Amino acid sequence: MSVRPFRIDVSDAVLDDLRARLLNSRFTTASSDEHWAGGTDPGYLRDLVAHWAGGFDWRAAEARLNSFPQFLAEIGGRDVHFVHVRSKAAEGALPLVLTHGWPSSFVEMLPLVGPLTDPAAHGLDPSVSFDVVIPSLPGFAWSQTMAGHFTRGGVADLWHELLTGVLGYERYGVFGGDIGGGVSMRTATQYPDSVVGVHTIHPPFPGKFDPEPTAEEEAFMAAEKAYDVNDQGYSEIMWSRPDTIGAALIDSPAGLAAWIVDKYHDWTDDFAATWDHDTLLTMLTVYWASGSIGTSFRQYFDYEHNKPGSPITVPTAVTLSHEPVMANFPRSIAERASTDLRHWSEPKRGGHFLPIEEPELVAGELRTFFGPLR
Fold it and tell me: Counting beta carbons within 10 angstroms of the beta carbon of residue 91, is it exposed (0 to 12), middle (13 to 18) or buried (19 or more)?
């Protein structure tokens, strides 16, 4: 295993090619007079692409990202990209792994770094601080794809090796949502002697319901299924034909933007407040410059290779995201999956990308849960 410093350094040639493609973009006609009814609104997309081509300063965004120390660790012959920021507080900081989901990246977690690693500078109690590790999932940003199938358990193995074998930590906490939540839960079940606690914004599901679901649980699952009827078109094609859609999106930055912005708009609690053009384009340019949109689909294509989850026995916390698919989530479902559910919070704000939507809220929740576990 080896670790080497990493800096994002997108070449001028890549940026020039990106700008040329943006300037030559073609746009579809809206399918409805109702904005966003048929997916990403063409008028919004046209404005976003124009700003990407002529107003967005990637070099400034790149410098901001590079202000966070980044590394590549070779694990099993594959590079894992990660941010690693040590606590500025006293000794004894808890290592904490923050894992993003799709369509996201390590960028989502960066607003948490300051409050968690330097609490005194943010007016917080310096006695609760963390060493923060933010890996890019395999096939995302500058992490290479996995050697075998992308499974949450396989990523958990990578994360454990990164934390213990590479960085030398013995005990650590895990946090995430979406895929990152699944990876965090698998890390907790596979390495309970090392994981002090798991915190997620999307609650755990049991591998099977025994006894049978209650009426409240049945109602939630029926509502979730009904929501997916209009929402899951994106996942159906990524499960079944990732290389087909990937070919289109890796060739067209406007298409890439439309594909990703559609989910940001639907899954963010307050889209306009969270995703100003520059924040959105930073995320999009990471996907474009790293050429990772197609490989980010691997976890969908390989989904059937995930094994049923085991009960989580380490301390567990849920800060429930405020998005339609999570509405009325019964705590009892999470209690079926976790034998030690210690913290349950429903803040009623902040959606699928909670760390970037409500970083102060998330940092507070993490401090509250992990503080006593250090």
Answer: exposed
Three-state secondary-structure class, residue 308:
coil
Topology (CATH level 3) of domain 2-204+216-373: Rossmann fold (3.40.50)
**Catalytic sites, residue numbers:** 178, 300, 352
Q: What is the pLDDT along the chain (374 residues), one digit of tens a residue?
A: 689 999 999 999 999 999 999 999 999 999 998 999 999 999 999 999 999 999 999 999 999 999 999 999 999 999 999 999 999 986 789 999 999 999 999 999 999 999 999 999 999 989 899 999 999 999 999 999 999 999 999 999 999 999 999 999 999 999 999 999 999 999 999 999 999 999 999 999 998 898 999 999 999 999 999 998 888 889 999 999 999 999 999 999 999 999 999 999 999 999 999 999 999 999 999 999 999 999 999 999 999 999 988 899 999 999 999 999 999 999 999 999 999 999 999 999 999 999 999 999 999 999 999 999 98
Kindly report the pTM of this predicted structure: 0.97
Q: Are 221 and 213 in contact (CB under 8 A)?
A: yes
Give, in degrees to the nearest 5, the angle at Cα 137 between 135 and 141: 85
Q: What are phi and psi of 209, to 5 degrees?
A: -95, 110
